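Subject: Interface between my chains keeps coming out wrong

I've been trying for a while to get a sensible model of this assembly. When I model each chain on its own everything looks fine, but I need the whole thing in one frame so I can look at the contacts. Pasting all components below, labels as-is. Any help appreciated, I'm running out of ideas.
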Amino acid sequence: MAHEYVPEVAIDREGNEHLVQGWQDDYFGGKMGFWLFMFTEVMMFSAMFLTLSYYYTLHPQDYTEASAHLNRLLGGFNTVILLISAWTMGLGLLKMRSGDVSGAKKFILATMFIAALFLVVKGFEWHEEYEHGIFLGHGHLIEEGYPLGKKLFYGMYFTMTGLHGFHVLIGIGLMIWLLKRINAGKVTPEHHILHFNIALYWDLVHLIWVFVFPYFYMIGAAHGH
Amino acid sequence: MSAKSYLEETHTAFGHPKSKILQWLLTIDHKRIGIMYAVVMFFFFFVAVGIGMTMRAELWEPGKQLVDPHTFNQLFTLHGVIMIFIFIVPGIPAIFGNIIMPLMIGAKDVSFPRLNWANFWLYVIGCIVALFSLWGENGFADTGWTFYAPYSLTTSTNVIPVLVAAFLLGMSSILTGLNFLVTIHRLRAPGMDFFKMPLFVWGIYATGWIQLLATPVVGITLILAMLEKYFGIGIFDPAKGGDPVLFEHLFWIYSHPAVYLMILPAFGVMSEIIPTFSRKEIFGYRTVALSSAAIAGIGYLVWGHHLFTSGMSDLAKTIFSFLTFFVAVPTGIKFYDWVATMYKAKIVLRAPMVWALGTMITFVIGGLTGVTITMIGGDIHLQDTYYSVAHFHYAILGGVVFLMFAGMHYWFPIITGKMYNEKNAIRAFALIFVGFNLLWFPMFIAGYYGMPRRYFDYLPEFAIYHKIAFVGGVMLVIGLLWMFYNLIQGWRKGEPSGPNPWNATTLEWHLPMAPAPLDNHTKVPYVDFRPYEYKHGEPVVKFDYETMRRID
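Reply #2:
Try treating it as a single job with all components included. I did that and got this:
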């Protein structure tokens, strides 16, 4: 029982016609909904940044030492490729808007590839931490006498990079879905709200990382190796 | 003109099910979704009322009557979790925001009907997860609905499922708020600008922003608490370097705006009922509308008044205290506007109006006692006593839930096409109103004399308050059952009401038939009038229902 939008007009007292906006095919509505959803995501990560910063004021020394231990090379590499992926995503959207569907698909595939690469690098990084006895519920983090600030720092590190990684994973899923919708002809240059919103989502994902990176990796950079 | 109502046919998320039940379960029609919310919510409401009465019975006399102390802790947690997360937070937006708001702005549905459908099922899943732990090995959580750390991290009871449930319910709430915000921005009938919207829509709009911006904070806090519980990171645990007060802050950053999220749509209901039954345009439309926005805005900055006894700095206390006083200003503006609307009006005392007037009394008591515990000195004395319990129930049950009942009577004809028995509705109201006051007013006194909340036992001198409260509770429950029986009988056997039995003016009363047709207004009218235009007690705006053009 699908119900299609039937164009409708409302007529005022002077007899002028005014188009009625239906919920179907509401491009601006779709855009606005997703922007509002982004606000929610921002609030969620803000609460974590707040927690992180507050504990920094309690344990500044432990924080810088723990941060120094993180692998800035891999973290920095990930930052760079994620920024590149935001670029490819944006180019894909431009291609879609200009009518080049196959070009758009190539850029989406490229973004997916970089996103997957990001997760692989992140996996190596986590593995390295694990080898050093640093992981949630493992090694130093459940060891008596290990500095409390470090425990908090690493705990927040795994929580936040984990949650960010989860968002990357969802992003890849969304892009697969997007490609399917493009192939099915449901997303077209005239009708690309889904593409737009996923690009918006991806912007947020890289933007969060742009904040995560300095907060975790750079505060101890001066003491690092 | 479509002759079939939304109860007879529907649009579904997918497929063309023949089965009536599947048509309900898969419906994307905002009116049906609202009704389904109501069914689930009131089921849980009565469960929680039953739990409340069990606690009251336990407190009939000092010492142990019915349940042991540990079970008592679980009971008040369950009561709080159900009433807050399952009943009153979705509350009026989920029921009337869904059913009525699109009708009020002349929309065919909400902006994202499928999301609305998914939200409902997310909500149901949340409810199931919350109760799942009842049958678990260690029993339901015993932390209170606030899950304060560090106790919630160390208790052996099943806190995690409740946290997961609260997260899911929060998610559903966020997306519902988002849906309504976009609906209100995008789908208003041509000509209806923001200051021509009915005031209930303003209430839903302000609520939508709170849902959107405050709920994620508690969501992530609950996730941090879960990680803490599983991995022992140290967040919120002082023994591991964390700070439990941070949990309280993050929790109340959501949960205090949440009470405005509950009350704002309720104020919206009040703002609909008062002009309709006073047959007068509302006094100070803009101030009522903007005070909703002001309450939502200021309400975001007052959470600290829950933490006056947590050792926060005196400066912070003073700031939070002052900010909290400011919330009373827009609320007061609303009350004066309502009273001014009724001044020299021909008031029609039908059930919705009686409910609204009753609420004015109970909510003023609830609101003003709130101001007394905003004062830091007073709060130190009254924190965690029955005084806060009474304040909260006066404000939320005597404010939000009473107005929800008022709305149920008011919009009953649109939803069912029938009319309930007026006399029984008034009698049920009287019983509930008296029972309600008997139940909670003594708690102010008991609290003032030092009866702590959440206690299983008490000193003998408090017995009289508990006994009166129990009697009031019994009256309240009988009244509730009577009211629901009356409404259900009204739906089954009531007289047909016609589309506009109250002579109301807002768009939801200009439908061609009652109950509402599936696709709402036959044609969308052009809105070049204010929502509550009355002249000499008669609505000004009249429509030809074939063309939906003005004929006045």
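Reply #3:
Confirming on my end. Chain A touches chain B through 49 residues (CB under 8 Å).
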